[in-house]
Amino acid sequence: MRSAAGQHQHLEAFLEMLAAERGAAQNTLQAYRRDLEDFLAFLEQRAKSLAAVAPAEIGAYLRVLSETGLAPASRARRLSAIRQLFKFLIAEGVMAEDPVLGFAGPKQGRPLPKTLSVAEVDRLIETARLRTQRTRGRDRVRALRLHALIETLYATGLRVTELVTLPRSVLTGDGRVLTVKGKGGRERIVPLTPAARAALDRYLNVGREKDDDVAPMIATRWLFASRSAEGHLTRQRLAQELKELATAAGLDAERVSPHVLRHAFASHLLDRGADLRSVQQLLGHADISTTQIYTHVLEERLKKLVLEHHPLATRKV
Questions:
Q1: Cys bridge to 216: 61, 84, 153, 207, which one at CB 3.0-4.6 A?
Q2: Quick one: pLDDT at residue 288?
């Protein structure tokens, strides 16, 4: 059997390819690493090398995942990662035949995105705004930052990583738009609402008024700076602050996350007549089929509306 170190060399080479040739984001690479390291650990237990894997090992691994209760979506993701790894190994000449051929992912209904109503988003934003008036010192700086984050997120529909890693320089030039670098290094321009720009200005200028009880912020590389190792607010911290805010706003914290606000941005645009192609461009989706899931949210909402309010909806047949 090839050594465990050799197995992981193949994994590292695969991840390097994803980063260099496909422009995979760090979060994507970490997800691939977790899934594939689990598969490698399974092979090591069975004393199998990657080059010697046969369909029998793939089938056995998928059965283990199923028996341990892993969700269908997670099993499908693991299989996809394994499939891509073996395609890479074949292209590199490590092996000749693909052991994953013939395996299909578990059947799963595509879940509709969780979203919030316009009224719920308004309540969340208003709660954040009121916090900026009721706090002082460093607490007010954090409140201003969170208010600016929520206004920007709902105004642009950015992915959470895109949002927290915005450079401060993104605000130079035309203040009505942001130029964002998304997945695969693709750039797109998204409009910035006056409310979002005003919230950002209040956050960035805190400490410059004579009544402010904090020193002006030191300009850093990041728009949403923090004391984290990365130098900017982390995705996890933003998610935590959002849930705390949701509770304060009287909303179910389990229903609120940065990604849910991105869903709300898209759903509310489509609900008000925006065309699918424009929403695709704003969200940074490479494939319009990814955006089409939001139309199903609207369809479900319309079905519920008819069933609840149509005079014939409750008639027995």
A1: 207
A2: 74
- The residues that are catalytic are 159, 183, 259, 262, 285, 294
Tell me the H-state helices in the chain: 4-21, 26-45, 55-67, 72-91, 118-134, 137-156, 160-164, 194-204, 235-248, 258-271, 276-283, 288-291, 293-309
Alpha-carbon distances of 227 from 89, 168, 213, 224, rounded to whole Å: 41, 16, 20, 10
Looking at the structure of the chain, the number of domains it has is 2
Check whether 33 has a pLDDT greater than 80: yes
- Note down the domain range covering 159: 118-258
- At 108 the pLDDT is 60
Predicted model pTM: 0.64
CB 192 within 8 A of CB 154: no
Q: Are the CB atoms for 296 and 276 separated by under 8 Å? A: no
Residue 105 lies in a domain: no
Is 164 found in the same domain as 59? no
Q: Is residue 27 part of a domain?
A: yes
pLDDT (tens digit, 9 = 90+) per residue, 237-282? 999 999 999 999 999 999 999 999 999 998 888 888 888 888 888 8
